[in-house]
Amino acid sequence: MRDKPLVSVVIPAYQCSHLIEKAIDSVLIQDVELEVLVIDDGSSDDLDQVMRQYEDDRRVRYIKNEKNMGVAATRNRGVRLAEGRYIAFLDADDWWAHGKLKHQLSAIRESDAVLCSTARELVTPEGKRTGRVISVPQKITYHMMLSHNCIACSSVLVKREVMMAVPMEHEDCHEDYLAWLKILREYGDGCGINEPLLKYRLSSAGKSGNKFHAAKMTWKVYQYMGFSAGQSMWCFIRYAFCGVGKYTKAVLGQKGKAQ
Fold it and tell me: Is the pTM of this model over 0.70?
C-alpha cells in the first residue's frame, strides 16, 4: 500500500506521444508527495510505448478512456479517480519549472484560497523558449476574470473537493474559463504567483489558436454563465481590449529584456 499523495496531477493525453515525456518528467521532479494520472483519450499514436518507461514508477497511473471523450470529460475523470487533496492540471504539450507545486501549496495556505495560478512563459511549437511572459495578479477575483481569463489551465492548483463540485463542462466553449468563473463566484478569490512556473507551448491547432473561434467560445462562456445580452456584450468588449493588452505587454517585456 502506498501513502495517499497530497497532489494529483491530471494530464489528458491525445496524439501527444512526441511531447508528453517533457510534461511528465517536469511533474516527477516536483518536491511534493504526488501522483500523475495520464489519461489516454483514444490516441492512435505510440503513446503506449512511451508510457512503458514509467511502469515501475508508483507515482504514475496510466489510464485509458474506452472512447474519445474530449478534454473536459477526460479532466473530470481524472479528478474523480484522483487520491490527492489537491488537483493540478497539465496539458501534455506544456511543462513546469522545478518548485512550482511547493510554491503554490504555500500560497494557498497563506491566502486560504481554493485555487492558485501562476504566470506563464510562452514557448514555440518546437519547444523553444521565447522570453515572453504572461503575468498573473496576486489576487484573482471573479470580477477581474469577467474582463479576461488570466488563469492558464496548466498552471492551476485547486482543492479536489472544489473540482468535484464544479466539473468542467461544455466542450464548445472555453470549458476551463467557465469552471474558474463558477469557482471564483462560489468560493471567493483565488491567488496568483507572478513567476513563469509554467512553460506554455503555443499552437495554432488548439481550441484557442484561431482568435475568431476563441472569441466565439468566450461569448458562449457568458451564455453558459446565464448573463444577459447587455452584460455579455460589456464583458466581451472588455475581453477584447484586455486580450490585446495582455499579449502586447508580453512582447514589450521580451523586447525590454533584449535591450
Answer: yes
Report which of 75, 70, 78, 72 is spatially closest to residue 42, judged by C-alpha positions: 70
pLDDT tens digits for 21-72? 999 999 999 999 999 999 999 999 999 999 999 999 999 999 999 999 999 9
> Cα angle vertex 25, ends 54, 56, to 5°?
15
Measured between alpha carbons, how far is residue 172 from residues 41, 79, 200, 231 in Å?
A: 17, 21, 22, 20
For 228, phi then psi, to 5°, come to: -70, 170
* Under 8 Å between Cβ of 226 and 149: no
> From its phi and psi, is residue 121 left (phi > 0), alpha (psi between -120 and 50) or beta?
beta
Q: Report yes or no: 137 and 150 within 8 Å, Cβ to Cβ.
A: yes
Separation between Cα atoms, residue 166 and residue 8, nearest integer Å: 17
Measure the CA–CA gap between 201 and 127, rounded to whole angstroms: 7
Calpha distance 124→204 (Å, rounded)? 11
Q: What is the dihedral of CA 143, 242, 207, 251, to 10 degrees?
A: -140
CA 157 to chain CA mean position, Å = 9
Residue carrying C-alpha cell 511547493: 102
Closest to 85 in 3D by CA, of 28, 9, 166, 184:
9
Grid cell in block for residue 142: 471573479
Nearest to 39 by CA among 14, 58, 21, 15: 14
pLDDT of residue 248: 45
- Quote the cell numbers at residue 249: 505587454
| 83/34 Cα distance (integer angstroms) | 9
